Every structure is written in C-alpha cells, then in structure tokens.
C-alpha cells in the first residue's frame, strides 16, 4: 500500500481517501498598497431576525402572532387562566423585551401578552391565598363548618366506605 501511495499522485493518500489541503499561493514579495481605498470594507452583519415566539424560526410568523396572542388572552377569561401563562411563555421574547427598545413588530402583540401576565399573576395570587386559607386555617378557622367543607369525609357521609372493611 505504501508503495502505491508513493508511486501515485503526489499528496494523495489512497488508504484514507483524503486529499491534501491546498497550499496558499506563494507570496510575490510585494507589499499591498497602504491606501485605505484598497483595504476591504467591513460589511456590518445583518440585523438579527425578529421572532415573537420562543421557538424562533420554527414558530408562527409575525402576521399570525397577534391573532394567537389575542385568542389566548380572551380565552383566559373563560375560566382558563392557565392560557394566560401559556401566552406569557410562548411569547416570552415579546414580554422580555423592554417597551422602549422592542421592535415595532412587537407593538400589536405586546398589550395582549402583558395583560396576560398581569391576569395570571392576579389569578395565581388568588389561588394561592385560597389554598393557604384551607391549609393553614383548617378547623381552627372554620369551626364546625369545616366538616362540611372538606372532601375526605364525603365518602363516609354517603356510606361508600362500608365495603373497605
């Protein structure tokens, strides 16, 4: 095998199938002109793409985003406040960008997402307060009415525990 490599084309490795790297052209010994006109211009990079959703280019186009944000916001009032949380998570780039520096494309989407964040925060505070009232207060807070409020004795009241022993 080594004999074939040596006898074959210069720089070709037949065993691995790799070709050698091309060599840079030899320097001609001349210096490039020092004028700024001959220097290559730096082209600024293109601005980053604007995506209103967390899934970036895989997500929906900006034209559809306003409709979806509005639907999530309005359906949140139909006893589905977790849609407000989904709205905030899905349109996180809109919610996270400051209003002053956010792109103009976010302007129609932003009110729905911000209102969804406010609505979900209020819902979460009310739900947490309600749950903590029952967890911490219990029978001390509600007195004898507590036995009618709790769910673990419903089976006893309906006689459904007789078969268990």
What does this structure look like?
This protein is mainly alpha-helical and 165 residues long. Helix content is 47%, strand content 0%. It is elongated and about 100 Å long.
Largest sheet: none
Task: Kindly report how far apart the N and C termini lie.
Answer: 85 Å
Q: Please provide the count of β strands.
A: 0
String of helices and strands? HHHHHHH
Content of β-strand? under 5%
Shape: elongated
The number of helical segments is 7
Low-confidence stretches: 1-6
Approximately how much helix is present in the residues?
40-55%
Mean pLDDT: 77
* Structural classification: mainly alpha
Rounded to an integer in angstroms, the radius of gyration calculated over CA atoms is: 34 Å
